[in-house]
Write a structure and sequence with these properties.
Strand content: 5-15%
Protein name: PA0069 family radical SAM protein
Biased composition (Low complexity): 348-359
Radius of gyration: 21 Å
Number of strands: 12
Domain Radical SAM core: 58-297
Keywords: Iron, Iron-sulfur, Metal-binding
CATH topology of the domain at 55-67 and 118-345: pyruvate-formate lyase- activating enzyme
Structural class: alpha/beta
Order of helices and strands: HEEEEHEHEHHEHEHHEHEHHHEE
CATH class of the domain at 55-67 and 118-345: Alpha Beta
Region (Disordered): 346-366
Shape: globular
Number of helices: 12
């Protein structure tokens, strides 16, 4: 394992024609190669000018219609991240490359203005950071996410953002006024309250206590904030479910949701390797329970069950979640946001309001 990284394995992409595996030749060369691994792996930023930034969603499992992802790849290094396989499309490893070779969409704000300016564009439920975290460490320097939020603010376009970074606090000056107009909501992911587990599970994300403080800071600023307890990993963070919900509620969260562990494509061998490395005593037990919730398979990609799982154990998790959420006042009531205030970029900043086009439209997000 590499210090500060979720994995040191540069696993080949599923599209690779050749597969390579290191073996010991009897002269100790394999052990020497492991011993000589660098203590860290620097992050490389790959700048990209994209042709479009808005992505549409056709999954019935997700409650937003559009998404904006300023980055591809994520420094947080969460071993369970379902987005890791997307690096294969870049001919980069979903393992180490995913967390060390970050594609920055430097013209994201520019392309968002283009999309909003198109004749016939209709505002819809939009999420920022649905694939990789929009407030990952490189955002402190590049500020691409902030430029996107500035466009959303300028055009009075509703949105939500989901993150496990305290970096979102920097943009409260934009988020709070939008939240006051029913245009913005935030969701903070808390996977565990155990800092030792967090360090190996999501090594470059904010510490659990820091995320709770972020919930409090956002809430105090008047921004509706929910908690995302995902993924639920049997026998790893699953025993903490109720404690996480209670801590988030005490910090000011008002809603919650969770997703059970997903292992698509290359995430499966990466996660199982991590599991054998850090929890060899329970690795087989964890995977047996995962398969119990996935129809006997390691992963289930079917709409309707991919987020929740199926079977008795998935039902039990849902029951525990619902009861705990109700007990702590974290009803899964969606935040009501206003679609009717949108103004195309050429009209933004003028006196135009929702009343120019009729009564405001209400929509709910998450």
């Amino acid at each position: 394992m590499l210090r500060g990284r979720g994995t040191g394995w540069a696993i080949a992409t599923r599209f690779a024609l050749d597969q390579r595996e290191a073996i010991d030749d009897g002269w100790g060369s394999l052990e020497q190669a492991v011993d000589e691994q660098p203590a860290g792996q620097p992050t490389q930023i790959i700048e990209e000018r994209v042709k479009r930034i808005l992505s549409s969603n056709d999954s019935p499992d997700i409650s937003f219609d559009l998404s904006v992802n300023p980055y591809r790849g994520c420094e947080h290094g969460c071993i369970y991240c379902y987005a890791r396989p997307t690096h294969s499309y870049l001919n980069l490893s979903p393992g180490l490359d995913f967390e060390t070779r970050i594609v920055a969409k430097v013209n994201a704000a520019e392309q968002l203005r283009v999309a909003f300016s198109r004749r016939g564009y209709q505002p819809a439920l939009l999420n920022v950071g649905s694939i990789t975290d929009a407030y990952q460490p490189v955002e402190r320097k590049l500020r691409i996410t902030r430029s996107v939020v500035e466009v959303l603010s300028e055009c009075s376009h509703l949105f939500s953002v989901i993150t496990k970074s305290s970096g979102i606090e920097r943009d409260i000056d934009l988020l709070a006024p939008m939240a006051a107009r029913q245009l913005a909501a935030a969701y903070v992911s808390i996977t565990t309250l155990d800092p030792a587990l967090a360090r190996i599970l999501e090594p470059r994300a904010a510490a659990p206590e820091r995320r709770l403080r972020t919930i409090r800071t956002l809430s105090d600023a008047g921004i509706p904030v929910g908690v995302n307890v995902s993924p639920i990993i049997p026998f790893i963070n699953e025993p903490e479910l109720e404690r996480i919900l209670e801590a988030a509620a005490q910090a000011g969260a008002t809603s919650a949701f969770c997703v059970v562990l997903r292992l698509p494509w290359e995430v499966n061998p990466l996660f199982q390797h991590w599991l054998e490395t850090h929890f060899p005593d329970r690795a087989r037990r964890v995977m047996a329970r995962v398969r119990d919730m996935r129809g006997g398979k390691d992963n289930d990609a079917q709409f309707g069950s991919r987020m929740t799982g199926q079977g008795i154990w998935a039902d039990l998790i849902r029951q525990r979640f619902r009861k705990a959420a109700a007990r702590f006042g974290l009803v899964r009531q969606r935040v009501e946001l206003d679609l009717g205030q949108f103004q195309p970029p050429m009209r933004a900043g003028t006196a135009a309001t929702a009343s120019d086009t009729g009564a405001p439209q209400q929509a709910s997000l998450f």
